[in-house]
Structure formats: structure tokens, C-alpha cells
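Quick check before the chapter quiz. The format below is the same one you will see on the exam, so make sure you can read both the input and the output lines.
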Amino acid sequence: MPLLDLLRPVSDEELRLLSESNPGWQFERLADGRLAVSPTGGESGRISAAVLGQLYRWNEARGLGVVFDASTGFKLPDGSVLAPDAAFLLGERWQALSQEAREGFPPLAPDAVFEVRSRSQGLEELRQKAPWYLANGVRLVVLLDPYLHRVEVFRPGGVEGHQGPERVPLDPELPGFVLETRGLFLP
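Here is the expected output.
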């Protein structure tokens, strides 16, 4: 993932406009002001959509909160704006935000985030995002690596690695949600 060192940090509004005027590219602002830029490739986009669909169906059945896609940037407590491939936020936390806060980059950490490795990034690079999320209050970070057929689940208490799993339960943070990996990782 390329990092851009700019002369000055971009504002939230500039980041929003940059994202809107460059469809197909994902812009994230790190806490130190650098911009991370990455396009979504077809395979990672397909997997992200499948994960988002599973998360959406699970939430529709339970009504616990709100599900977000990769176009949503969250303004984390450290000032960074990150846009996970899929995210979940408990309903009461979303409802506590003003309408203005909901329209911009929601100023809070989601409860759970999903990140899918793309061809343009290495697994270590993807793993570096997990501590950023956790340090900002995310309770569950799920990394999917379609190239190694691996799922890694990060929580404040540690990490679980799953090599070639068919199912990965994500309790208690997402009650009853089981990530189905059949069809996600192609041979």
C-alpha cells in the first residue's frame, strides 16, 4: 500500500473530496498525517463483497447494529481515518451520533472490522493495521488472506490464526456470526 507524505495533513473535507473524485481508489489518513492509497483489485473486491453480504445477512436477522462497506471512513480517536473492507457498529453507538456526525466520517471506532488482503499488499502490511484498530477501540479485527487461505482474528487479548478454515466463529463480539470461507478462497 503506497504511503504519501504530504506537505500538510489533509482535512476531513479534503479527504472526502479526494475519495469522491477518484472512484476505485481507497484513501485513508494515518494518525501521522500520511495518506495510504490503494486500489481494490477484482479478487479482493469479490471477497470483500461476500464478507459484507454475510455480515449484512447476520445483522438483518438479529438487528444488533449497522453494517458498513469499504467506502466508509471512520475517524478514529488518534485522528486517523481508516476505511475497512467491512465494518459493524452496535446500534446504540450509531444512534448516539448526531446526524452531522453520521453524514461525515463517523468519529468513533467500529466494534468489528474486516480487512481483505489484496495483491498489492503483503500479509505483514495488512497485519500492521490490526494494532491500530485495537488501540483505537475496535474489539474485533478479522484479516482474510485469499492467497494463503488464511484468516486471522485479532482481539485485545490476542490473535487466533486459522489456516484453510471452512468456518470461523466470531463470538462473543458478533453473537452467533460464523464467517463461512467456502467460496471465498479459490484454489
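If your answer matched, good. The chain has one domain: 41-180.
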